[in-house]
Automatic annotation (TrEMBL):
Annotated AAA+ ATPase domain residues: 71-223
InterPro entries in UniProt: AAA+_ATPase (IPR003593), DNA_pol3_clamp-load_cplx_C (IPR008921), DNA_pol_III_gamma-3 (IPR022754), DNA_pol_III_gamma/tau_C (IPR022107), DNA_pol_III_sug/sutau_N (IPR012763), DNA_Rep/Repair_Clamp_Loader (IPR050238), HLD_clamp_pol_III_gamma_tau (IPR045085), P-loop_NTPase (IPR027417)
Taxonomic superkingdom: Bacteria
Entry EC number(s): 2.7.7.7
Keywords: ATP-binding, DNA replication, DNA-directed DNA polymerase, Metal-binding, Nucleotide-binding, Nucleotidyltransferase, Transferase, Zinc
Protein name per Swiss-Prot or TrEMBL: DNA polymerase III subunit gamma/tau
Annotated GO MF terms: DNA-directed DNA polymerase activity
Origin species: Asticcacaulis aquaticus
Gene name, Swiss-Prot/TrEMBL: dnaX
Reactions listed under catalytic activity: DNA(n) + a 2'-deoxyribonucleoside 5'-triphosphate = DNA(n+1) + diphosphate
């Protein structure tokens, strides 16, 4: 049998080396012409079951079925576009009719097998779609009952060359009701030499009477973690140079479709000159995507209620060509990722490490109710943007609405105030607003309510920050989540006094951290703050301190006799989480001496 690689070239020809030309010399080998370009999606179509990526469960089931001889007579392959339904159908047709062939003999041997690494007697003809016993049909062009009856008439005849007659029907959901009914009896009692393989993207449109007669396989979307190495391997085989971040963008934009990812990769490889590497910025422009880090910063501005920063961030993204609907879609994704990180942790978000850490920090600061309300607002805004005559203007109005709503307390907070007899017009939620986003709108306060409080606002005392913990508390009260995360991760405090902070920046600290911290403190306290950085202080960040204290508390807990005895009694027991005992709260009267025995007061309070 000829080399399969030669059959891929339609211009390959055979020649007799003993043939001479008219002048007595040997005839030179014909020069191969440049064949038409084959797109990557066709060039790298899987040739074996091992080449299928992301479908390990299906491959394992089929391998066991073929090994034990429990092979079904009908298969139903379903899944989204580009996950390998048609490819799997062809591989199944090859596996069912696989017959190995010895090199120097016409003797054929072997039975149905999923081991297709070595080409069999019928493999090449099946791949090229010219095998007489393997019929590949498109249900979209043969939807009627007459076409189905004509097809079923040939089922009763035995195969000509292969072991089975295999009928591959793509997009089977497009068959008419009459065609499905005509197919029922044959699927119920098929002849032993006939096999059916169906593929569809709309499994719900296939009658249950058909599904119950087939062995169903749901081909999964290929996750970006699996798709990225596959694309990198193809780039190496093609000798193409492309940045890892660009490949990650393509894998994410493919939405689980291998064919879509290869088509996008084909398009990306021609975006730069030959020999030059394709950058992530070029791929981002090609896909019309916004900068992911900038979009996450926009989401943090919304959470903090910073209207001006949010509008400027959106206009910057829009100026770079990002689509407003795409930006809102990314914001929805980050809202969902924040909710998932709050419940399941940063690893469950399927985001890169740095964005996953940022959304996890956001989730730790926000309640589930707040995230749910934000999701509802964004989802409504997404539909408004798609219908608006000016999507950019609609997006800006939506951002104003998000930031304004960030200062408003939730229904549960209002109900609690109402039960406590508090003034519902008294501003934002307890503990401060989210950056003052709703201050411009008045938060729903009537004119009479505003006129009743001007003197109280004028006499409001200036905020005093006596310790660095007071600074952290103020940042939390203002709900500036991004600044809080940066301070906890990158600030190693050296000295602190009112109006001045000196710290050692941790590695990878944002370059604008000093400016941002200084401007925020000046805005909140009304006085100028001097922020200085020094090196070699040997201090630790807030996050490092919290981790150290957590480890020390855990070690102390493990050293407790009761806990250690419990862990010995139950081998394999682990301490997954623990909660520190709250400190007793002592109510003191002004100008009264502090109590001497705190335990007695705590016991009385408990009584």
């Amino acid at each position: 049998m000829s080399d399969p690689s030669d059959l891929d070239d339609p211009f390959a020809t055979e020649r007799d080396d003993n043939t001479d030309d008219m002048f007595g010399g040997s005839v030179p080998a014909p020069v191969k012409k440049d064949a038409a370009y084959t797109v990557l999606a066709r060039k790298y179509r899987p040739r074996t079951f091992e080449d299928l990526i992301g479908q390990e469960a299906m491959v394992r089931t089929l391998s066991n079925a073929f090994a034990t001889g429990r092979i079904a007579h009908a298969f139903m392959l379903t899944g989204v576009r580009g996950v390998g339904k048609t490819t799997t159908a062809r591989l199944l047709a090859r596996a069912l009719n696989y017959e190995s062939e010895t090199p120097n003999s016409s003797e054929k041997k072997g039975g149905p097998s999923v081991d297709l690494k070595t080409f069999g007697a019928h493999c090449q003809a099946i791949i090229e779609g010219r095998h007489i016993d393997v019929l590949e049909l498109d249900a979209a062009s043969r939807t009627g009952v007459d076409a189905m009856r004509e097809l079923l008439e040939s089922v009763r005849y035995a195969p000509v060359e292969a072991r089975y007659k295999v009928y591959v029907i793509d997009e089977v959901h497009m068959l008419s009701t009459g065609a499905f009914n005509a197919l029922l009896k044959t699927l119920e009692e098929p002849p032993p030499h006939a096999k059916f393989i169906f593929a569809t993207t709309e499994i719900r449109k296939v009658p249950v009477t058909i599904l119950s007669r087939c062995q169903r396989f749901d081909l999964r979307r290929v996750e970006p973690e699996t798709l990225t190495p596959h694309l990198e391997k193809i780039c190496r085989l093609e000798g193409a140079r492309i940045e890892p971040d660009a490949i990650a963008l393509i894998a994410r934009a493919a939405e689980g479709s291998v064919r879509d990812s290869l088509s996008l990769l084909d398009q990306a490889l021609v975006q730069s000159e030959e020999g030059q590497s394709v950058s992530a910025e070029v791929v981002r422009d090609m896909l019309g995507l916004a900068d992911r880090s900038a979009t996450l910063g926009l989401f943090e501005n919304i959470i903090s209620g910073q209207i001006s920063e949010a509008l400027l961030a959106f206009r910057t993204l829009y100026g770079f060509g990002a689509d407003p609907s795409q930006i809102m879609g990314d914001l929805l994704e980050y809202c969902h990722a924040t909710s998932v990180a709050k419940v399941l942790g940063a690893e469950a978000t399927r985001l890169p490490k740095e964005p996953a850490g940022r959304v996890a920090a956001l989730g730790a600061q926000l309640s589930a109710g707040t995230l749910s309300r934000l999701w509802t607002l964004m989802l409504k805004a997404f539909e408004e943007i798609r219908r608006a005559p000016d999507p950019a203007a609609a997006t800006e109005m939506a951002l104003v609405r998000f930031c304004y709503a960030s200062d408003l307390p939730g229904p549960e907070a209002l109900l609690k105030r109402l039960q406590n007899g508090e003034d519902l017009l008294g501003g934002g939620p307890p503990g401060g607003g989210m950056g003052g986003g709703g201050s411009a709108g008045g938060g729903g306060v009537s004119a009479q309510g505003v006129m009743m409080r001007p003197q109280a606002l004028a006499q409001e005392p200036q905020i005093q920050l006596n310790t660095f913990d007071d600074v952290l508390a103020l940042i939390s009260d203002k709900r500036d989540i991004g600044l809080r995360v940066d301070v906890e991760r990158y600030v190693k405090l050296i000295s602190f006094r009112q109006g001045a902070i000196t710290f050692e920046p941790a590695p990878h600290a944002p370059i604008d951290l000093v400016r941002k911290l200084s401007s925020r403190l000046k805005e909140w306290t009304g006085q100028r703050w001097l922020i200085a950085t020094e090196g070699g202080g040997g201090a630790e960040t807030i996050r490092e301190r919290d981790e150290r204290e957590r480890r020390e508390a855990l070690q102390k807990l493990q050293g407790d006799p009761f806990i250690s005895g419990l862990m010995k009694a139950f081998p394999g027991t682990e301490i997954l989480s623990y909660r520190a005992k709250p400190k007793p709260v002592v109510a003191t009267v002004p100008d009264a001496p502090a109590p001497e025995n705190l335990d007695e007061i705590s016991d009385k309070d408990d009584d």
